[in-house]
Amino acid sequence: MSLAPATPDATHEAQRPRRGSRIIAIMRGLLRDEVGCLALVILTIVLVMALFAPLITQYDPLFQDRRAVLKAPSLAHWFGTDDIGRDVFSRVLYGTRISLFVGLTVVVITMVVGGMIGMISGYFGGLVDMVIQRIVEALDTLPSLVLSLFIAAMLGPSVRNVIIAVSLAQIPRFVRIIRSEMMKIRGQDFILASKVIGSSPLRIMLTHGLPNLMPTMLVIGSLAFGIAIMTEAALSFLGVGTPPPNPSLGTMLSHGTRFIGMAPWLIIFPGLMLTISVLALNLIGDALRDVLDPRQR
Amino acid sequence: MFEGLSTYGRALTVLAASAMLTPAAHAQETPKYGGKVTINVHADAPNFDPLASTEYAVHSRLGLAMNRLVDWATGPDIDYGEFVPKPALAESWDISADSLTYTFKLRKGVVWQDVAPVSGRAFTAADVLATYAAIRESGVQKGLLATVDTITAPDDHTVVIKLKRPNVILLQNLAHQNMWILPKEAFDGGYDRNSVVIGTGPWLLTDNQAGVATHYKKNPTYFGKSADGKQLPYLDEVEILPLKDLNARIMAFRSGQIDIWFGPLNLTQMAAIKQQVPDLQEIKTIANTQTELYLNPSFKPFSDLRVRQALNLAIDRLALGDVVRGGGGIGGVVGPALSKQTLPEEERIALYGTPDHEKAKALLAEAGFADGFSFELTVLNYGEEFVREAEWIQQDLAEIGVKAELKMVDLAAGQALAKEGTYQGLFLVMSPFSEADEYFTTHFLKGGNRNYMGVDDAELTAMIQEQQGISDPAARQQKIWEIQRYTAKNVQNPLPIWSSLLLHPAHARVHGWRPMLPQGFPSLPEVWVSE
Amino acid sequence: MLTFALRRAVLGILVLITVSVLVFVSFRFVPGDIVNQQLSEAGAVTPELLAQKRAQLGLDKPLLVQFTEWASGVITGDLGKSLWTGRPVANQIATALVPTMQLSIVAIIVGAVLGIGAGVAAALWRGTPGDMILRIVSTVFLAIPQLWLGLLTLTGLAMIGYYIPLPYRSFSVNPAINFQQVIFPAVALSLGVAAALSRLTRSAMLEVTGADFIRAARARGVPSSRLYIGHGLKNALIPVITLLGTQFGNLLSGTVIIEQIFNIPGLGNMLFEAVANRDYPVVQAAVLTYGVITIVVNLLVDLSYGIVDPRIREARS
Questions:
Q1: C197 plus C56 within the same structural domain
Q2: Where is the ABC transmembrane type-1 domain (chain C) (predicted)?
Q3: pTM of the model
Q4: Is the domain of C175 the same as that of C297?
C-alpha cells in the first residue's frame, strides 16, 4: 500500500543529525506516507475539535437546560441532549479534551519514567536490572485494566488519580521494550567509544541512548496514547474515573446504558469519538513505524 | 420523542404515597393455586445470616422463608409505608397499663420447615427467646431491642417482654424487616445459619447460586391463611434473580423472564418498556429512602443557620424530582414514604419546595457571604440518577453564588468520612427507615448513627424522648409534626431532598402484588398468577 | 526444558509474593471497612456494636498479624473466608473463574480463527481490493473500545428484539442457554484480537515471499498459494503465539468491562464488588488469581516456542 521511498534505517543510524532536523525528517516521512497523512488529518480534526471546543459550540457542557431533556439530535442540539438537558455534542467535545489530556499526560509520564527505568535497566544490567525487572514483572502480572481499576478504586475518582492509575499500568510494557532496545545498542561502537573517553552513564544515556531510542519510544508512545484513552473511558464507565460533572466519554457511555434502545445517541456519539481518536493515534503509530523502521512494513 | 413524558411541570407528577395505583380489576377474580413468579433484586445475598448484616439482598430473600412475631398487614386500603400490625408468629398480644409489659400468645401448631437438623419440629417460645437473645448479644438489629429489660417464656406458647422505659414503637420494632425468628438450633451450633435457611415461612429456599438465582418452593406446612380462609401461599415456586444492571433488567422484563420488577426505573424507561409490554401493570410507590444533603457545621459557612437556610432555598426540588427521578415525593425530616408521620405534602412543599434565590442571596449576605463561597461536596456513589441529583444541586447552588466541587467516593469510604466528620458537604441516600423515631434518634440525638453534623439541641432531644412515650396515636402524630417543624426552622441540617418514585411494574399475569415498605415481600403469599 | 519451566515457576512465585504484599498493604489504606457496609441500613448502631463486629472479623488485630495469618493460610491452600459472605473464598473464586475463563477462551479461539483466516486471505489477495478492505476493517476494529462494542451489541440486539436469556447458566448446567449468553460478549471481545492477529499474520506471510526457497519452489512449479500457506503460516507461528499470549492479558482486562455490560458473574465482577465492600480476603485472592493466570499463560507461551522451534528448545537445555 505504501509507495513512499524507503527512508534510511533510523534505529541503527550511526550518525545522529541534530534533534530539530530529525523531527522535521520524521514529519516529512509521515506526510509522504499515505496512512500517516490520513492519520495526521484525522488527528488534527480531533485536536481542533477538542482545543477549540468553546468556539465550535456555544453550549456549556455542564449547563443543564432543564426544558430540553433527552432530545434526539436536531439542528439545535447536533448530538441530542442527555437526561438532564446537557448538550451531548458539547459534552463530547469537552470529553475528548479530557481524554486527550489524560492520554497525553499518561504518555509523557510513561515515556519519561518508563524510558528512564528501561534505559537504566538495560544499560547497567546485573543487579539493578534484576531488581527493576522483578518490580516490573510484579506490576505486569495483573491485566492492565485490572491494575488500573484497583489503583483508581483505591485512590478515588479524580482526573489526577486516573492518570496515576493508567500510567502505572502502562509503564511496565514501556520499560521492557526500552530495556531490550538499550541492551541492543549498549555494545555498539559509539557507546563504547564514549565510555572510553570517560562520559558518565547518565550522559551516555541522554546523548546516545535517548536519540537512538526515540523512534521506538514514539511508536509505542502513540499506541500507549490510544490505550490510555480507552482505559480512561473504561475506568470512567466503571465509576472510578473522571468524576462528574466533568464530561468524560466513558461516563457518558455509562449514562447512555440507562437509555439503550431509547436514546441511542447517548451511546453512539461518545463511542464514535472515542474510536476516531484511538484510530487516529493507532494510525500515527503505524505510520511512524513505517517511516522509522521500513523493514517491518 | 419524549415530549410529555418528562415535562417541566410542577406538582403534577409529585405523587402522594397513597396514590398507589393498584389494579383493582383483578380484585374480584378467584385466586388460582400453582405457578411461579420471578422477581429481580439488585444484588446477590452475601449470606443468609440475618444477624450479620442489614443488607437488603439478604433480608428480602429471607422474607419468603421466614416470619416475624408481628408482621406488617398488607391490603388495598393500606399505604406502602403505613404500619398496621398483623399477627404472625404471635397470634395476639396484651400491653400492660403502664406500657412496660408486652405479653405475646404464640400461634399453636406452627412447625419449622422440614430441613435438617430442625426437621419439622414444632415452633415454641424457646425459639423466640434464643433469637432475641442472640440479637441482643451481637445482632445488627440490637438497637431495636435497646429498651427491652427482660424476655421470658412462662410456657411454650407465651413470651413476655418487659421494658426498661415505655416504648410506643416496640410492636413495630418487632415487625422490623430484620427481626426474623429462627429456630434455636441456629444459635447453639445446630446448623450454619450463614448458608442454611430454616424458617416457618410460605416457601422453602431450595437453592441459591451466587450471581444466578435463588429458588424457592412452596412450604406445605405454612400456617398462613388468606382473609377468607384459603391456605397460603398460592404460588408453587418463586425465583429471585440478582440483576444489577439496568439493561439486563429491562431486557429480562420485556422478554418475560421476570414477572415483578424491583429496583430503580424511571417513567421514561417504563414508557419504553410499555411499548413492548403494553399490558404491564404500572405499580408505583415512593421509595422509603430519601436523598439528604449534610452540611458540616465545622466548615465555617455551614455553622450559620442562615447559610443552611439559603442553601435550602436555592434547590428546586420539585423540578429535580420531575426531571431526574421522573416523580416521587419531596423530602422531609421524616421521609415521605411514611405517609402518616411525615408532614403533609403542602407543608413540605412550603418548607422545601419553594425555591427563592433572592431571599437566599439576602440570607447569604446577612451571614457575611454576599459573594458566595466554595465548598467540597462529597457524593457517595449510589448510581447514575443519584449523581444526576448531585449535579442538579450543584447548578442550583451556583445560581446563588455557592460553588460546590463534587468529590465522588464509594459507599464504604463515604460512610467512613461521614462518621469521622471529615467532609464539608455530604450527599447521600438515607437508610430505609420505617418509623419517624428512627429518623429522629439517628439524626438528631447526640451520638446517633446518622448524626454526621453533630447536632446536640436540648429542646429537640427532649421532644424526641417525649414522643417515644406518647401512646395516643393522634397526640403522637402532633408531636412528631412539631419536631419536624422545629427542625426545619432551627436546625435545617441535613437538607432533605427527594424521595424517588419507585416503579414496580408487573406482568399482567401477576395478581395481588402490593409492594410494601418492609423488605421481604410481605404481600407475596397472596400473589397468584393466571395462565 | 523441565529446569527451564521450574525456574520460571519459582520466579513466578516470587512475583506473586510481591504482588500479594503490595495489594495487602496498599488496600488497607483505603478508607472505610466492611462493618460499615454490613450495618449501613441499620438505624440504631452504637460504636460498641461496630467494635464488636470488627473484632468478630479479626479486623482489630495488627496488620502484620493479619497478614501472617492470611499468608500462612494461602501456603496451606486456604484462602480464608469472605468477610462479606462468610463462605470460603476458594469456592467463590472457583465459581467466578468459570465464566471468565470460558469467555476468554472462546474469545481467543474465535479471534484466532477470524484473525489468522483474514490474515492469510489478505496475504493471498495482496494488493487487491479484498486485501484493502480486510486491512481497513482490522485497523478499525483495533481502535474500537471493547466497551463501546459491547454496548453497540446490546443496542443492536435490543433493536432486533432479541433478548439474551437470563440468569447466567454455566455450560455444564445448560449448554444451550450458556451458548447464547457467552457468544455475544465473546465475539465482542474477540474482534480486537482478530484484528491484531490478521495484521501480524499477513506481514509474517508476506515476509517469506521473497525468501530464496520460495522462489526455488515456485520455479519447480509448486502452486504459490500452497507455498504461502505452508511456509508463511509456519513463519507466522512464533509471533502469533507471542501475540496470543499478550492478547490474553488484554482479554482478561476486557472481561472486566464485558462482564459488567452483559451481567456475567465472573472474576472481574467479583473483584469490583469486593473492592466496593472492602472484602479484603476476596480482593487479595482475586488479584492473586489474575496473577496466577498471567504467569501460567506466559509460561505456556514460552514452552510452546520450544515445541514450535526445536532450536529454542536446544538453546535452553
A1: no
A2: 97-301
A3: 0.87
A4: yes
